[in-house]
Amino acid sequence: MAKTVGFISEKGGVGKTTACYHVAVALHRYYNKRVLVVDTDYQRGGITCRLVPSMIENFRSGRVEGATLFDKYQQLYSDMTFDPFVELMSTDNNIQLLPADPRLAQVAVEKMPASNNIKENNRRLYRHLALLRDILAPIDDEYDYILVDSHPELSDLLRSVVFACDYCVSPVKLDLQSTIGVPSAIQCIQEVNADMEMIQAALHEIPEYQPTGFSGAIGMMAREWGGILKSTERAEFRRLKRTCGVFDTYITEGDGLRQAARNRCPVYDVGGTNAEKQAAQFRTLTNEFLTRCPQ
Ligand SMILES: Nc1ncnc2c1ncn2[C@@H]1O[C@H](COP(=O)(O)OP(=O)(O)O)[C@@H](O)[C@H]1O
Ligand SMILES: [Mg+2]
User: Fold this and answer.
1) pTM confidence score
2) How far is the CA of 202 from the centre of ligand 2 (A)?
């Protein structure tokens, strides 16, 4: 059974997609893991377009072919029989992908058909929360890791992501404004876990639920001075370590990742001193990821 890990933060531009993509490629390439990436970022579809560049046009036109994650929410909203089949894509990196669908912006629990029965309403809230988990359940034996990239918003969709995950990590820039994204991610996880405890007590038919864990923040775009973190960033890193938990490995700011993004390839395939440094950091980070998000 795969372990599912969400890359979450209400902050945009902190490196969620970059981290998710490079950990996914490293897990497959250097650790021989079978990996599925789920893209729930309906606005940018960044990891979808990075893994399958030909998807850029589909994404711009607002229409993704096949049975998408959004179609499954639509089934719930129109009270149709739920069928968990979704269309996956194979990518050049030998990673499977459940692509982003721009219509995921419309996901909202209020769209569930109403009922005047409290128990039935709880059942519907639960079905909405559990949707992604229910889609992944029939296929999760085919993978070692399922990584979920997300949109920077504490939405009903993000709650489904958190519910489906065994662990979440929170990429972060090491400045005070961005690190605020970490406690709010932890709070979102705690709220989903608390809601599940309550729903489980109210509806006895619900399968066993393992609370989602927080595996740590990941320092992205870190700036060094003389080989160590700049003092303000070091202070922020230590504060995170004390309060929320943070990966020991961080990724430094630099041109290697920018060039990799331009070439739509992983930084492992880019030459040059900076790219090699960032590639080595991502390999070490992935090693730590395997310890913090164990199978
Ligand atoms: N360590 C880094 N050095 C330089 N650029 C980076 C680094 N990490 C991420 N970036 C760039 O920063 C931008 C935002 O990163 P992204 O992963 O898309 O953030 P998010 O998914 O949180 O919105 C992207 O253009 C990405 O290529
Ligand atoms: Mg992103």
Assistant:
1) 0.97
2) 36
